[in-house]
Amino acid sequence: MKITLWGTRGSLPEAGIPTVRYGGNTSCVSVQGRNGTLLVLDAGSGIRRFGAGLDPDVREVDILLTHLHMDHIQGLGFFKPLFSPNARVNIWGPPSTTMHLRERLGRYLSPPLFPVRLRELPCDLVLHDAPRGDFQVGEFRIGANFISHPGSTVGYRISENGRSIAYMPDHEPVLGRERLDGPADWISGCGLARDVDLRIHDAQYTEGEYDSHIGWGHSSIRDAIAFASIARAGKLVAFHHDPAREDAEIDRIIQEANDTYEPRFELVAGEEGALFEVN
């Protein structure tokens, strides 16, 4: 499968911050399978660029939303296939006991926030609650489960032909800080990440910053590395960059993390436009 990063920021960058390699768009990742099945992970502002470049002959797309915070859905109304009468768009999102996904998304995709309502979109739109467990989309086996982040939030594991990736862009794994080598089953998201080949994971804070942000639902780079080690994951793509970070600062944080923690896997920063192949 081919994984492309279209947006890697936790929020739109602050004014004046140069974002050349690490981009200025919020969370969006595309995954294409060997048989052509197309998944889109989150619908941040990066989804507009992705949709604009899609082959017009694409007839079906599945969008997997981790949660409904604005930085993860703000590009949805600008996704080109939603306005094609020939396209079927499936949107999967975190379940709620009080309100259907259609009603929750409709709060954004309706006046006065957006001029077009969900029911007015010309595509064949189908909305699903992501089940807590496994489900099939084309050639992909997808696992979903709740993870630690404010509000109803799910992480995803996507498998194809014996290879797998995990996607947890907003996640605080709650490692117990010093309990990094104990049993892992109690750790949020560990089942989704166990033994994956590639993990795209929240790494918003440095270790020094995290101490004043405990409980905010985001990870330090140290905890993202520790979590990957416990889950025996492969390559780690640090994601959800702080909107105030410049490229040089992100480079420095990743270099220092590699030097300090010496992870047993490759650690890279998520760059907008980066392509990964897991075969």
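Next protein, fold it too.
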Amino acid sequence: MNNTTRFTNRANNYARFRPGYPAAIIDHLTSAIGLHSAMEVADIGSGTGISSVLFLDNGHTVYGVEPNDAMRAEAEKYLQGYDRFHSINGTAENTSLPDNSINIILAGQSFHWFAQQEAKQEFRRIARPDAHILLLWNIRDISTDFSAAYERIIARFGRGYEARNRDLAAEDRHTSFFSSSGYCRQTFTHTQLLDYEQLRGRLLSTSFLPSEEDADCAAMLAELAALFNCYEENGKIRFDYTTTLYTAKID
């Protein structure tokens, strides 16, 4: 599947049911790299705007670079109240941003789709002196009975899914992107409380799972409903995440 089109029929569920990011990230970056609102942000693979809003709420100008028309349209709708948000049809490898224009290059839940060497060249081009790159992921906790059972549904119905690759932020897989000067890693905790319709939408936002048009979707959703009925408390299920942030200078 083409990485730039794989979320086309998931965009609405993605916008409505994927988790945001903890506000503590901004406090951490303020002390760790001197983040301030005058720094301009390029959110690469910005999707439906979930990662952009974290920085817009801190007063930054954000350029959301997203190649998928449906995802970009959801971001434009979601962020229409932010004058400092600029939506751009572009990719990590060809952002169309001006040379030496960006202080913060952000990839939230998107870095694993990039062609790394081409993206690195593009990031060097758009970066201002002393610019930082931030890689950000929400990783599902699978330590509870519910979350482990949810993981089994994904493993059973996922196309090409391998559990060993679930942590796409793993240091041994992606941090070769950074310069020899190294990077900093910080983790945060984050939680969603979801009713059944929200849990259903959260599952259907996953690109490698059956969509509602697929024959095996009904069986997958039947298992999900049974799982929810088994573990819900007061009509909600708890989704816990570890949010992992990598911070580095552009070399």
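About the second fold: The radius of gyration is 18 Å.
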